[in-house]
Amino acid sequence: MPIEVGAVLEGTVKNITNFGAFVQLPDGKTGLVHISEVADIYVKDIRDHLKENDKVRVKVLSVDDGGKISLSIKRAVEKKKSGPMEYDRGRKQENFQSFEDRLAKFLKDSEEKQQQLKKHHESRGGRGNTRVKSFEY
């Protein structure tokens, strides 16, 4: 049975590298899940998310003329509107903030830091070095 693009299959992680994981599919073929396709968050070390012999659900992204199969774990998982995100392994559950929440927190923290810098600067004499050299002609 040929592998169809868009199909969601269950496979087994056979090998992990720094750039991704090789997953054996039910028909015996092997595809690659690139590190950027493991999770919706930034993945620094793929071994924090996967280990060899893990059973994972993958979505087939592409099959090239040479038979190379590109897979995704994050696209095989149904997206939830809110709440914790669950990984297939069931080990990790983390609450993720929306972009808007993270942006609001960043702006608040930035404003607080600006205020602290301003107070510190003013306590040290205001606008900096005010000495002016006079020149005689």
UniProtKB/TrEMBL annotation:
S1 motif domain sequence ranges:
6-74
Question: InterPro entries recorded for this chain?
Answer: NA-bd_OB-fold (IPR012340), Ribos_protein_bS1-like (IPR050437), S1_domain (IPR003029)
Give any Pfam family that matches. Answer: S1
**UniProt GO molecular function:** mRNA binding; structural constituent of ribosome
List every stretch annotated Disordered. 110-137
Which GO CC terms are listed, alphabetically? Answer: cytoplasm
One GO BP annotation of this record: translation
Q: What name goes with this protein? A: RNA-binding protein S1
